[in-house]
Amino acid sequence: MKAKKTTGESMEVVLWNKTNAAALKSMSKELAAHIQAMSKEGKDRVVEQSAGNTKYFFIVDGTDLSPRTLEKWRGAGNEVQQAANGQKVDSVWVRSEGVDESITYAFAEGMALGNYKFTKYFKDGKSKQPALKQLFIQDTHLPEKKQRELFTLVNATHLSRTLVNEPVSYLTAEKFSDEMVKAGKEAGFTVKVLHKKQIEALKMGGLLGVNKGSIDPPTFTIMEYKPAKAKNKKPLVLVGKGVVFDTGGLSLKPTPGSMDEMKCDMGGAAAVVGAMYAVAANKLPVHVIGLVPATDNRPGMNAIVPQDVLTISDGTTIEVMNTDAEGRLILADALVYAQKYNPDLVIDLATLTGAAIRAVGTYASAVMGTAASDDMQTLQKAGEKVWERTMEFPLWSEYADELKSDVADMKNLGLGNAGHLSAGKFLEHFTKYPWIHIDIAGTAWNGAAQSYRTKGGTGVGVRMLYQFIVDKYCKG
């Protein structure tokens, strides 16, 4: 990659373990004394500028490797990224002086994740792209293989963000499937796209029902990565809600603060695509399948109306009480389809309910399911490691009672309270295997940047799923 012309400034970062006195010998006496004084005062950084060069010295307490502290260092990396782009610097060197490799990794991760902008639709989009193009890491304890893995995972997260940020004028269901085919070719996983006639043959009444209001046809995309020596005998199946835009259908959403962010309603599907990309590109020895039912939800054409009855592909009939509770309808068909793989575990991700946001805000994703407690704990710990935290909720039988219908097997809507749980109970009906549901309604989209989580699509779920797969299948 050719570097762009810069202002002539360079940038270097030194991550210094404050117990590593030997590293100070390579500095001037004045600088070494200044750093030691700052360390005694509890400060964590010193900035040295001279002749167009900027050098950051970060003072690290090497004994604290907690998830919250690693998140702090991701944030510090993002700050340096912002400074580099502000100064039009195209490359940054990060050098470790005795710090744990997990801190170096987190710092570089924050820099790389923050160095993202969606500029496709600007007239001068290329000029708005980040100036920072290269990041070099010097850490003898962080091998090149681990560095490559990191940047592949960052690219996968950026891919997920871009898919979420694309408007439906471009990213129809069919175009979304095309993007999955493209990602599969790049990363090394297979992709099969089912179109409307095939979906009709499978009697996917939930997906077809939601699509009735659209002029654009639905798709059902199957991604698969199956290495020769996979560690899991039965596949892990990831399912992502792929509503490329959600107007609410005839139960129309209000625009301010609601419909105006609904291009993100395929954030679950985008996370599945990103996770598949990262797993395949990094050649993890794990058999993983991704399923994405995709459509938009509009009030036109022959759109479904409240009290319509749809039949899911397993024969379950659903009374539609609200056409804005559409995500669970298309996921139902995908969860039924997942049964054919006799999966080890199924995880679905969806921007499913406003109730999840009311329950945990934007700080975590709501989780529930029937998987073994070990898997639930592994997911929770994976989320903490990458700071995509989760909160587990129960699936009590009372939530199923809310879904009883007078005219069909189920309703698609529970009572007003705890709607994320009645939605989860709805999905549970279509699972006959260990299953986890992750409601990312509050975490998939940022109205304003939050450190390295840029404004717009966050790519949430990609890093968490990847870490979960590593921890569950690739340890020991």
Brief synopsis:
The protein has 476 residues and is an alpha/beta fold. It contains 15 helices and 19 strands.
How would you characterize the overall build of this protein?
The protein folds into 2 domains: 10-142, Leucine Aminopeptidase, subunit E, domain 1 (3-Layer(aba) Sandwich); 167-473, 3-Layer(aba) Sandwich (Aminopeptidase), CATH 3.40.630. The chain is built from 15 helices and 19 strands. α5 runs antiparallel to α9 (267-281). Helix content is 37%, strand content 21%. The strands form 4 sheets. Strands 6, 7, 8, 9, 10, 13, 14, 15 and 17 form a 9-stranded mixed beta sheet that branches. Strands 2-3-1-4-5 form a 5-stranded mixed beta sheet, sandwiched between helices. With 476 residues, the protein is an alpha/beta fold. The two termini are 37 Å apart. It has helices spanning 29-40, 67-86, 101-114, 125-128, 144-165, 173-187, 196-201, 205-211, 267-281, 327-338, 354-360, 373-386, 397-401, 419-428, 462-473; strands at residues 10-17, 45-50, 53-60, 91-97, 134-138, 190-194, 219-225, 236-240, 242-246, 288-297, 308-311, 317-320, 345-350, 365-369, 390-392, 410-411, 435-439, 445-446, 456-457.
